[in-house]
Amino acid sequence: MAVRKYVKKIERSTIFVIKLALFISLFLLFFGLFAIDNPQIIGQNRTAAITMTTFVILGISMTAVYGGFAIGKKKSKEIIPPLSIATFITDFVTYFQLSIMNVNRYNEATLTFQNIGMFFLVFLLQIAAITLFVYFGNFVYFKINPPENCIIICTEIKKASEILPKIGRYKKQYKITDIITYQNEDMKKLIRNSDSVFIYDVPAEFRSDIIDYAYKHFTNIYLTTELSDVVINYAKPIVIDDLSMLCSNIKDLSFEQKFIKRVLDIVISGLALIIFSPFMLIEAICIKAYDKGPVFFKQQRATLNGKLFDVLKFRTMVVDADKIQGYHPATDQDDRITPVGKVLRKLRIDELPQLFNILVGDMSIVGPRPERIEHVEMYTHDLPEFKYRLRAKAGLTGLAQIAGKYNTSPKDKLILDLMYIEKYSIWMDIMLMFQTVSVFFKSDSTEGFSDDKMADFVKQQSMKDNIKK
Question: Of 153, 170, 232, 397, most Cβ neighbours within 10 A?
């Protein structure tokens, strides 16, 4: 116990040392192994200085873009893929730099099979190092930090079934001890005795009081995001005379931002169409060969300012699927999806034809996903703020696609899209483009809507021992 208290005091330093050790290991694996045949790359020369500097700067930047070394905040299996992607990009750029500078003994044929083989050997060893350090880092973190004792405060007890399964995925971080309503007489006592409080779907007038009380008693606060939170979160503090205020400037993209965004859309979509054209041809042949039906699926969607356009996708369902059973969102075991379609959806390559939509200007690379017209009308009826998504051009990827899932609720997707719109910058677009790669490694990114109406109840029951009745 005494050791744990001491280690707790130096927790940040301990985690920093683990992170630093990992980065040094990645650096040494790359340059150490390549130096076996090319000792000059670690010598005192300009090439070594430039490539090592590139590796360090790009490695730090890419790690930040892909969420950092998020020890204690995420599961190990959620940290490893993004870190591996960041490392691969760093390795590739540094390797390319080494190749064009002709620093090895294969000067006339730098990109030999032997060198390429060494590149992938280095990368595989780096993945092993990442895996080792991530699991060790989380092991150390959770030895120092036991799960937080948490309570959930919501409008009514049954609403907890919407948030409980999500929190339950992180058992090492959170331990749910109570689920109560905001009207519970023992609420303040429970807040004082808890490490953290989750505030979910509580009316705004009561939420502020709970936040104030939790803050007063040093209780961590987690609350679901509302539209007002998004606006305030990105507001800037200003002082008018001697009055301090928060200012949120509601404005459209500047001319310069629109111009750069459009140029990026044209260049990237054009290059992507060239690169992926062989894969798209194979997809088209497979779809046609399976049932002789049309290759593409067209559907009207809404984009900037409500403008309608026909979105293009590779067809993944049987012909006239909506006419046969009537429209409803795809489920995990949807028999309308063809065998070819299941593969295309799993690999997230059924949306490649939307590169044509981007090229002609109907869509952008990054932005809110274009919704069906029926969805826009339905969601706007239940969530009037849903129409604010149309303040930006629809995108192939976006914050909601990267952070969310196929079956993420309309409200949560809306909040993520509004966060993107309010925080917009060209740099953010570039970051989201890089982060899109990580979606392919998320096993639940294409998770469909469940047909089982008792799914939440079953998940909740699995956590029964953690809940005090």
Answer: 153
Q: What is the pTM of this model?
A: 0.78
| Cα distance between residue 200 and residue 151, in whole Å | 11
Give pairs for 449-454: CB < 8 Å, separation 24+.
Answer: 449/329, 449/330, 449/331, 449/332, 449/406, 449/407, 450/331, 450/332, 450/407, 451/331, 451/332, 451/333
Look-up: residue for tokens 């996903």? 369
Q: Residue 274 and residue 428: Cα distance in Å, rounded?
A: 25
Say if CB 171 and CB 150 are below 8 A apart: no
Q: pLDDT band at residue 452, thresholds of 50, 70 and 90?
A: very low
Distances (CA, A) of 111 to 30, 117, 119, 440, 448: 16, 10, 10, 28, 43
Residue in the block written with tokens 């993420």: 408
- Among 213-222, 329-338, 454-463, the minimum mean pLDDT is found in 454-463
Bridging pattern class, strands 243-247 and 236-240? antiparallel
Q: Report the length, in residues, of the chain.
A: 469
41, 47 Cβ separation under 8 angstroms: yes
Q: Are 324 and 318 in contact (CB under 8 A)?
A: yes
Residue indicated by tokens 């909040």: 415
Which positions ≥6 away from 285 have C-beta within 8 Å?
Answer: none
Average pLDDT along the chain: 83
For 71-89, what is each residue's pLDDT tens digit?
888 889 889 999 999 999 9
Could you tell me which of 341, 327, 400 has the C-alpha nearest to residue 370?
A: 400
